[in-house]
Amino acid sequence: MKKTIENHFKALLFVVVSLVFYSCEEFLDRNPTTEISGPTFWKTQNDADMALAGCYSRLNVNSFNYEGIYSLDVMAGDANEGGQSLGASSTGTFAMGIMESTSGGLLANIYNDCYRGIASCNYFLDNIDRVDIPPATITKYKGEVRFLRALFYFNLADFYGGVPLYTSPVSAEEAKVAQSSYDQVIDQVLLDLDFAIENLPNTGYSSEGHAVKGTALSLKSRVLLHQSDWAAAASVAKQVMDDGQFSLYQEKWGDMFIAKGQNNNEEVIFSTRYLNPDNSSQQDIRILWHGIWNPRQELRNAFECVDGLPISESPLYNRDNWKENRDPRLGQTMRNFMDPAVKESGEVVEFAYNGVSMTGLMPAKGGNIETLPIDYSTKSDHDVILIRFAEVLMNYAEAANEVSGPTPEVYEAVNRVRTRAGVDMPPLPSGLSKEEMRERIRNERRVEFAFEGMRYRDIKRWKTAEVYIPTLVEPASQLNRSFDPNKHYLFPFPQSEIDINPELQQNPGY
Hints:
Helix content is 43%, strand content 5%. The chain is built from 18 helices and eight strands. The chain has a two-stranded antiparallel ribbon with strand order 1-3. Helix 5 (106-127) runs antiparallel to helix 6, helix 13 packs antiparallel against helix 14 and helix 13 packs antiparallel against helix 15 (434-448).
């Protein structure tokens, strides 16, 4: 059942997108032309489905997929960029606090990718009423697209603060406006999500890749958490929990991040979808071969021993074998650089990484050993999970703890994540204070969502980035990383955007 929407993707990606949706011009690439508004399109159910798939397809070439989320974890201090690259667009450079408006790379890609998605959504919303299909179908499709637009705008606001706000297609001249405030952008995000919540079906994974009510509610809980609106965030997360459409995966935890564990996976609330051969990714190549990302020991040390104690307190910790008696998620998140790969058949193969790990560690999460040996022809179709039920539980626990302290409901939410089949960690100890529970929740988020692109965003919203990041030492240079709280909580606007739009004011410090 993995993937009916990709059938639409194939048709759109290789016909409509390439021909009409986007031009090669920098601005028009984010603002589609009106060529498909002619008499041959926006007429039938198939036209609507293709256009909807075009909006979803923007997720497939987006900075929040496997490469982008690993890059964010480099910036969070959970990994290093392999090779200690210090090029202008290198994530390793950004992690050292060297960010400029001309840097390019991730700093510009998030901005451009999100606006391309927004342009596709606005174009869809401006034309879908012309299609001769039932009004209820049109309303549902609008709900899906407004969810996508909310996702893109929330990502923009989280990384750049206030940004130009467009809710309908604009020309190049009309796009030359100053940024709206951060609060105005978040207001629009919540408006879009409320529309989606009201108009999307309340179903689970059987939606086969489409956003549903629980998807929009889950994203809303994340957005409200980022606003420190604790009561509202807890309430929205609790609605997803009570609706019962999603639950935790009960098989081997690491299988959730590769294709074989993703079919009908009731934990997956929303993901970027891939399907071989036409809509494939290079995820296995990147994780199991290139060695681009090297996990840091700080992340490795954050995983508890199987007795539920940190390694600094547990008598089970073995300094000579970091894998022994540890949280099962640890060995499914990272491995030693020299470890062999053992397939399910028992065959032992080599990883044959392209470079040596700077930290002695390599990522395991999201890589399928069964694909080895790998070359450039290897195609992956692992979906990239963007929202899953474990996050909803952790959102609820964090928000509810901030409101009322460590109530039984807070304990239950965290313990559901820790004690599920496939993880089987002990429950949290009773008697924690609000502050102690806060720290346990933060560490649980770190280990549960490692290499899912959430840690950097978490330490920014907690305002701990300015304290933690400067403590990190780069293994090659032995220099400390830098994080300037006066500028680094936001990315700079790409200089190319400042040049195009003179109304856009650069973020402070850049």
